[in-house]
Amino acid sequence: MDSSKQLLMTIYASLMAALMAVGAIFAIPIGPVPIVLQNLFVFLAGLLLGSRWGLASVSVYILAGAMGLPIFAQGMGGVGRLVGPTGGFLIGYIPAVYIIGRISENGDHKAMWDAVAMIIGTVVIYACGVTWLKILLGTTLVKILISMVPFLIVDAIKIIAAVPIAKIVRPIIQKY
After folding, report:
1. What is the pLDDT of residues 144-176, one digit of tens each?
2. Which of 1, 43, 53, 132 is 20 to 30 A from 88, alpha carbon to alpha carbon?
3. Residues 6 or more apart from 30 whose CB is under 8 A from it?
């Protein structure tokens, strides 16, 4: 990859990290973990930037938030967010974006493969988040899974929205 392409991908990765921060602002607090839009941008980072640059984007976002920038849900930041109730979900973004990117790349960016990639990515995010919540809250897995139902509905809508967004934006990114 030539240096101008690397610079452009760095800009795109930075833009996606910024969009994740914006997505975190729009939070619906329904318990210890709010409903947010930031994972929509995690999905799009994987689909649009691929595994490598999507991973870079999410890593920059997580690192910036861990360093104290108020970019996590409800304008919070700091390492405490990574060890609090949302920490497992935030950490889950890292493997999820990589997996989404890999599946999308190998699926030739077809809508069906993009949807499959995001579903698998969502499973990874929930596996990390639910596991951490169970450890942190000391409650039963059944209670946590029941509390996740509203999140699953909203995440399904995000996946449905991300497919056409990726279809529209991907050619623009690939053009340059």
Report:
1. 888 889 899 999 999 999 999 999 999 998 877
2. 53
3. 150
